[in-house]
Every structure is written in C-alpha cells, then in structure tokens.
# Entry
Amino acid sequence: MAGLQITSDAFAAGGTIPSRHTCDAENVSPPLSFAGAPAGTRSLALIVDDPDAPVGTFTHWLAWSIDANADGLDEGQAAPREGRNGFGTTGYAGPCPPHGRHRYFFRLHALDTELELQPGADRDQLDRALGGHVLETAELVGGYQR
# Structure
C-alpha cells in the first residue's frame, strides 16, 4: 500500500454508513484509520462533507492538529482541534439527509505545517489555512439514506 490512506472499520469505501454514526441514532463519529503519511508531514487535517445537500456542499466535520504519526481516530473521539460544522456546532455531526441517498466524503490531508487556527474556525478559514500546505489527500466515501 502506497500513499496516504483513510479507512473505517464501520463501513467499506462506497458502502453505507451505519445509522449509529448519523443523526438517526447515537451521532458518534465512525472509527477512522490512517496510514501512509508522506515524508515531511507535520500534521493531519480532516474534512467531512456532503456534496449532495440541497443547499450545496454541507460540512459535517472539520478537524485539524491531528498528530502526523496518528494511526486514526477512535469511534466518537474528538480531534485535537475542531471547527464549526454546517449545523453551527463544533465537532462531528453525522449524516442527516433530508431525502434520498447522500454521499459523505471523508478527506484526510497530510500537511507540511501545524495550522495556526483556533477551535471553532469555519470551513472558509480552514480552507484558507490549508492553502499551499497539503502534501497529499486521501478520501473515503460512504453513503446514507434515511
């Protein structure tokens, strides 16, 4: 296996995210495993979003300052720093589609720096902070329908 990777024991790539990790149940983040961070990685950042939302891409989780050597995040584990999701809260907010099956993209970014971003930052602030610092990105996509 080469390159940065993100996987989950809760669902396979392209599979269905269990309701445990959604607004329909416990709403806890799924367990995530990381591997293959490239040389020069100083930290990791994670963005989870839904491009199928009727209002446009909807952010479910912003996380950063994850140790470059971390092998993942356990189920329900908060990241060292987390931002404001589309619901206006900080931390993970699971899938909660209003209709039909939506796709949820878990994107892990290997960064060449430690971001100087305060907890509670929004998506635009995180996207700007990532600019020019992403060494590699890995993606895991899961789906959910209510």
Remarks:
- The mean pLDDT is 97.
- Strands lie at 5-7, 32-35, 43-50, 58-67, 72-73, 81-82, 102-111, 134-144.
- Residues 5-144 form a domain with the Phosphatidylethanolamine-binding Protein fold (CATH 3.90.280.10).
- The first helix runs from residue 123 to 130.
